[in-house]
Amino acid sequence: MAKDHGNQIKNDDTYEALREEGYSKEKSARIANAQANSEQTPSKDGGKGKKYEDRTKEELYQKAKEVGIEGRSNMSKDELIDALRNH
């Protein structure tokens, strides 16, 4: 039985399987959470998102918050884009 990782991990079984395969905590969480979301899966919706440059600063801030980027509140739009791409 999978360990409960709290509210941030939506699919504990998938998360643990990915961690055992050597994926980072962040990548495992992203994949597990995307698969738990019935409306959006990485395999079906990959590449269909808006480009970062086409998003508002608020949208970028929310995405940075979602993936846990530190210092996001003091970042400009360009800095948020760079942080998201290199996270």
From TrEMBL:
InterPro entries from the UniProt entry: DUF7218, Rho-like_N, Rho_N_sf
- The source's domain of life comes to Bacteria
Domain Rho termination factor-like N-terminal, first and last residues per copy: 58-84
Its Gene Ontology biological processes?
DNA-templated transcription termination
Q: Where is the composition biased (Basic and acidic residues)?
A: 1-29, 45-87
Region listing for Disordered, in residue ranges: 1-87
User: What SUPFAM superfamilies does the annotation carry?
Assistant: Rho N-terminal domain-like (SSF68912)
Question: Which ranges are annotated Polar residues under compositional bias?
Answer: 34-43
From the Swiss-Prot or TrEMBL record, give the protein name: Rho termination factor
**Source species:** Alteromonas marina
